């Protein structure tokens, strides 16, 4: 397995583990602590974390077929940054620990840029790259 695939698979898997834990925490332990708006934000952060963690795993599996490890690594790194900036700041802001919610849009932008880089890598991939 190529190094970039291995790293993205590890990050994606650990992020899915964390998303499960944070989702359960929000549902079971924070249901009486968070306001309805905070609960909705928490749920949205967890949902986006699930989607983009699966995206990292998909990228790990596609990386050998795309044939551009540098571009794939950048996409994975930017997507990971998006997870921290988007979901992470929403979690922190929901708990009222620090006013960092203004960073969430940069996380959303990171997600968009990462997916654009994946599309560019797919566009540049040579037919027949990585197998069938």
Beta-strand content estimate: under 5%
| Residues in helices, as a percent range | over 70%
Q: Class by helix and strand content?
A: mainly alpha
The major beta sheet can be summarized as:
none
Shape: elongated
Task: Enumerate the spans where pLDDT stays under 50 for 5 or more consecutive residues.
Answer: none
> Please, how many domains?
1
| Count of DSSP H/I helices | 4
Rg over C-alpha atoms, rounded to the nearest angstrom? 16 Å
By DSSP, the count of extended strands is: 0
Q: What report would you give on this structure?
A:
With 132 residues, this protein is mostly helical. The chain has one domain (3-124). 80% of the residues lie in helices and 0% in strands. The protein has helices at residues 3-29, 36-66, 69-94, 104-124.
List the keywords.
mainly alpha, elongated
In summary, what is this structure?
This protein has 132 residues and is mostly helical. It has helices at 3-29, 36-66, 69-94, 104-124. It has one domain.
Lay out the secondary structure:
Blueprint: H1 3-29, H2 36-66, H3 69-94, H4 104-124
